[in-house]
Amino acid sequence: METKFFALYARVSTEEQSGSIVSQLQRLNEYLRYKGENLPILIYKEERSGKDTNRPEYQRLLSDIRAKKIHAVICTEISRISRSIIDFHYFLEALQENSVNFVSLKENFNTSTPIGKFMFSISACLAQFEREQISERTSLNMRARARRGLFNGGYADRKGILDIDEDEARIVCMIYEKYLEIGSYCQVVDYLNNKGYRTRKGKKWAKSPIYRMLRNPVYIGKTKADGKIVPSAFPGLITGEKWNAVQGLMDGNHLIRGNFYETSTYRFGGLLYCVSCSCFLESSWSLGRKGKQYYYYRHPSKGKKLCSLGSLPAKEIDEELCCEIARYLDDPELIQMVNEGIAKRLCADWGKREGELIAIKKEIESISLETLELSKKIYLFGEQHIKSIIAPRFDDLGERKSQLLARLQELESIPNEQVDPKDAKNLAKFLSDEFTKMPMADQKKVIRRFVERVDIQEDYSVVAYLRTLCLETQKTPCIDGASVLLLIPR
Ligand SMILES: [Zn+2]
Fold this sequence. Notes:
The structure is a single chain. The chain is of the alpha/beta class. The protein folds into five domains: 5-112, Rossmann fold, CATH 3.40.50; 166-256, Hect, E3 ligase catalytic domain fold; 272-324, no CATH class; 334-413; 421-487, no CATH class. The protein is built from 14 helices and 15 strands. It has helices spanning 21-35, 56-66, 78-81, 85-97, 114-147, 166-182, 185-194, 207-215, 240-256, 314-329, 332-381, 383-413, 421-437, 440-450; strands at residues 5-11, 41-46, 70-75, 101-104, 109-110, 222-225, 228-231, 272-274, 279-280, 282-287, 293-298, 312-313, 451-456, 461-466, 482-487. The strands form four sheets. The chain has a five-stranded mixed beta sheet with strand order 2-1-3-4-5, with helices on both faces. A hairpin with a 5-residue loop joins β10 and β11 (293-298). α5 (114-147) packs across α14 and α11 packs antiparallel against α12 (383-413). Bound molecules: zinc ion (ZN). The site of zinc ion has 8 residues, from loops.
């Protein structure tokens, strides 16, 4: 077998002096010495900032990982590897694919421990949003390119220019006109689908592409760059006046019509539930005296209101609930939940181990008995029989016994893994920090992954039902009755 290396990764830190590369490497070496590890080491000294993964030493590390040269990557803290949880998750994935362990000293994070595995599943969950967003953005981009007359394929057409597709251009114009006529893009979607219009892939139209189409300056021959709308090289399909009219209508409408995914207001939209009336609250807004907009959660206008609950100020509620959720992630209750989940799994493993241990001990005992019987027979049958009958059996038994003893030793050396409460605490801290750092729109998506429903009682007390984080499968968090009591301001 080829020798594997410990990879020590150190990166400059612009913020603090103490995190210099030399002292980082010192700490990493001390850690290895303390652990009594004696594999050879490879050192990666990064002189670049961690804002992206476009760093020479980081890339060298990745290629060494893929070349299966690395046993484990060790760094002083996770932020040395990456400042973004998404990049960090990709990094963990690369490690997992190549069976490389990862240790970060500050967070006491080790992927070979149960808490490390749990951490991996959380990072997968968070990274999933980003991936979904990117794929949505990419497909929209490709459509936009196509509409602009640009070729989406490889490099066959180097100029990237195709003729405008007349049929599709006609549909785009119609969508703009219909929107001005109806004033609701959701109804435009219904109109298109009812009239039998289909997307390029022959599917029914969905809301979000239509919304983006109506918002896209590409159709007036312009493009968005750094948040500004600038002229593009391609002719538009829609007049500037029509496009502006649509934008104005949409600006006024999008709050009323509640396109919650396009705006970061109402982070808990659709999740708040009035217990007395058994209904979900709606998001709504109103204009103040000076034209300022106020956002509310309130009872739906249809249906009977049975409680005394008034309109709830959305901004305050959101802030408070987000704070509570961040706090909850840093809460002993969650840690206990994590511990229980891990303990349950470990119990199963441990039970299997116990079963095997008992079976092995039994078999060793019976081998000893048979060996004893055979030795007795030597006296009875005499020397000439030993070679032909007894000796082979003796050899078999001896071999089986040494196999069993080896397995026994292996099983007995498995540590009974316990979750270190300190690990859980650090994990919780990391999670709540990551959550509060996310943009509002992302927080909103995270909330929908973690929160099943938020019950509001008539006395304004709130119970949020959280989805239990599933430890076994990373893809579908299972829904369970984990709940947390929160208080919201009146
Ligand atoms: Zn109510």
